[in-house]
Amino acid sequence: MFCALLLLLQLVPGGQQAPRQYATVEGQVVDHTTGAPLAGVLVTSRIGGADNTAPASAERLQADSFDRPVVQVMTDGSGRFSVRVVAGRAAVVFGKDLYGVRTLTYTLASGMRLQDAVVRLAPTGIISGRVVDSRNSPVPSARITPVQNRYMG
Fold first, then answer.
1. Which residue would you say has higher pLDDT here, 105 or 148?
2. CA geometry: angle 139, 127, 92, nearest 5 deg
């Protein structure tokens, strides 16, 4: 047992890790209802451990709430995005105010470039206004219960 462990330690040099392999997901984010492109969607991909890989020009390296490195990009005026992901199975999170958050998982080989991905975000809606009684008088502390619509796709 000790000899096998010693052999394993000789095969794997201490402190050296294989460089991370990356792939790219490119596409467009659109409104689920209208099909209109959505500008300003935050696209986030967790890239694993810090390996000092320089971000692409539109990417910004951040840390999530658990201090893990993530790559973030924003969709342009046409809803287009390009984000680096870890090769293999990678989750990409799309989020925008009034649309909520959607997480999609992609399985990509190292160096692969997935083009023309279409991501549909459903609007979450806003409730505004005032509640009045039958005499048009405001109803203080009225309780409002919204109905939930579910979008599949």
1. 105
2. 150
Residue of 100 and 73 predicted with greater confidence = 73
Report the C-alpha gap between 54 and 134 in whole angstroms.
63
Q: Are 114 and 24 in contact (CB under 8 A)?
A: yes
Q: Are 39 and 55 in contact (CB under 8 A)?
A: no
Residues 6+ apart with CB under 8 A from 147: none
Tell me the C-alpha to C-alpha distance, in Å, between residue 37 and each of 34, 40, 83, 136.
Answer: 9, 10, 17, 40
> β-strand 113-121 against 22-31: which pairing, if any?
parallel
- CA-to-CA separations, 70 to 19, 21, 86, 93, in angstroms, rounded: 17, 15, 10, 11
Taking the CA of residue 43 as centre, how many other CA atoms within 13 Å lie in the half-sphere pointing to its CB?
32
Q: What is the DSSP letter of 33?
A: T
CA angle, 120 as apex, 117 and 124 as ends, to 5°?
155
pLDDT value, residue 85: 93
Q: Residue 88 belongs to what H/E stretch?
A: strand 88-96
Alpha-carbon radius of gyration of the chain: 23
